[in-house]
Amino acid sequence: MKRASQALFALLAAAALGGCAQGEAVEATSVLTAVAEQRDLVITAEATGSVEPVRTVEVKSKASGEITALHVDIGDVVEPGALLAEVDPRDVRNGYNQAEADIQVAQARMAIARAQLERADELVAAGVITAEEHEAKNLEFANAQAALVKAQTNLELAELRLSDVTIRAPSAGTILTKSVEVGQVIQSASQNVSGGAVLMLMANLNDMQVRTLVDETDMGEIRPGMVANVDVEAFPNRAFQGTVRKIEPQAVIQQNITMFPVIVTVENLDGLLRPGMNAEVEILIAEETGALTVPNNTVVQPRQVGPAATVLGLSTDAMQIDRSAWGELRRSIASVDASAGVEGAEPGAANGPAGQRAGAGTPPAGTEDIRAKVASGEISRDSARALFQAARAASGGQGGAGAGRATGRPGGGLEAAGGEGSHIQGAPGYREAVVFVVAEDGTTEPRAVLTGLSDWDFTQIVAGLAAGEQVAQIGAAQLQASQDAFLERVRQRRGGGPF
Fold first, then answer.
1. Is the pLDDT of residue 27 over 90?
2. d(CA 129, CA 239)
3. Do 201 and 59 meet the contact criterion of CB atoms below 8 Å apart?
4. Which of the two residues, 37 and 487, has the higher pLDDT score?
5. Which DSSP string do the residues of 177-194 spell out, in sequence order?
6. Number of other residues whose CB lies within 10 A of the CB of residue 438
7. β-strand 458-463 against 444-454: which pairing, if any?
8. Average pLDDT, whole number, for the chain?
9. What phi and psi values does residue 116 have, to the nearest 5 degrees?
């Protein structure tokens, strides 16, 4: 597959050069430019949802009967054990009184059976009664014991049923809904197959959550514990702080869009958030302060250098980028991070054979000053990298012997004369890209850069560009049209198939 890709790139490049050799003219176009500026980038995932309690409790009654009293109303805040309602206690009180009478009878029978058994023991020892008569007294005593235990159990159950007619709060919270009124007859939740009637709903509103649906394209970046901002329409000028608590595994498909439920918890100690409020959630994925940025339409992928040059009216023969430039940028980032003591740096990344060829083994002049400024907070990491690259260029450290050449041609093919570039350690999350820098004299040339964060408007340039430089803007539609036109020419020359 790797050789096939190289062969395809070589084919596309050869066809492009052949088209240029046959005199295909490129119209000169006016170039719109933008300035590389520093700004704060905040990358968020946005979603909408509704506010709901973390835990909602259904209050039911274990006793059946008529509601005789309600002690709370909707919106009341109650503590654990607070009296909520009462059910007509007459039936269960009668049962309790009967259980008390039964236990008294059982206790009397127990006392009589014990006395008779003691006399039978004396009589059988004197030979007055037979062994069979003695065994009968033992059986009467055992039956009396069983009757007493049963009576005691019935009394305990009667006490529980009597307590069930007074319904109390299972936990602290606020009454959300009330489904019954005084005089209504309810069914027991434990004795009815339907589960009984729900008297009221209650929940602790100090801890709320927002259930949102997030598009699957953003799910790769979201993790539990991320910070989120929650906005509700009732308080437009106040943002509530939240935290991603859970990402549910089962996707939800709505209008052919796949989304995943994300639960965001929000503290509600002030009691401002109410269940059912519509909320807009912004989950903070990443942020960078003072990042060097350019508009998104100024950045192209390495394979799009040729089509982009055609859109800008440039000659594709001059669009040559040293493929080792991206590796050099990655090594310079690792060197700056190591010199400045930045966490996550890989100091050894610049000391390999490639780094020694590029002069990365010896820090250029001014490294100590740059490191001191980064440590004091006088300059940002992006500025430090730009200064470091300038120092390396001044010391003749750019490029290296045997470095491969990458040539941009229409169709986005990149042919590396030195073969595929090896993986360079350091800054593994940065992406390779190209911008077209417009000099003061009006000349335009492509430049290799590494990009970081990106939002809908701007892309962070981590290395390869300095603040204040002008870069050319390239229309997405024009770029796509240039790629399609090139591929069509290739198909025609190859008999209708790109391969």
1. no
2. 93
3. yes
4. 37
5. EE---TT-EE--TTT-TT
6. 20
7. antiparallel
8. 76
9. -65, -35
User: Token pair 């250029």 is at which residue?
Assistant: 364
Q: pLDDT per residue over 176-227, tens digit each?
A: 999 889 988 888 776 665 667 889 999 999 889 999 999 888 888 899 999 9
118: helix, strand or coil? helix
C-alpha span between 377 and 69 (Å, rounded): 68
Bridge partners (DSSP) of residue 345 are none
Number of H helices and E strands in the chain, helices first, is: 9, 24
DSSP character at residue 48? E
Q: What CA–CA distance (Å, rounded) separates 268 from 451?
A: 39
Tokens 């790109």, located at residue: 498
Under 8 Å between Cβ of 242 and 265? yes
3-state class (DSSP) for residue 235: coil
User: Beta partners for 33?
Assistant: 472
The rounded Cα 487 to chain-centroid distance in angstroms is 40
CB atoms closer than 10 angstroms to residue 27: 6
Does residue 255 come out as left (phi exceeding 0), alpha (psi in the -120 to 50 range) or beta?
left
Report the C-alpha dihedral over residues 11, 16, 22, 28, rounded to 10 degrees.
180
pLDDT at 381: 58
How far is Cα 427 from Cα 334, in angstroms, rounded to an integer?
7
Q: How far apart are CA 337 and CA 346, in angstroms?
A: 8
pLDDT in tens, 442-457: 888 899 999 988 888 8
In angstroms, the CA 196 to CA 300 distance is 65
Measuring CA to CA, how many Å separate 216 from each of 212, 219, 251, 256, 258?
A: 12, 5, 9, 12, 6
CA distances from 92 to 60, 62, 76, 160, 335 (A): 17, 12, 29, 9, 82
Say how far apart CA 358 and CA 252 lie, in whole Å.
52
Helices in 273-411 by DSSP H: which ranges?
Answer: 305-311, 324-340, 353-357, 367-376, 381-394
Tell me what pLDDT residue 391 has. 56
C-beta neighbour count of 266 within 10 angstroms: 22
The Cα 346–Cα 338 span in angstroms is: 6
Instruction: Produce one character per residue of 366-375: b if its CB has 16 or more CB atoms within 10 Å, e if not.
Output: ebeebbebbe
**pLDDT single digits (tens) 65-123:** 889 999 999 999 999 999 999 999 888 889 899 999 999 999 999 999 999 999 999 89
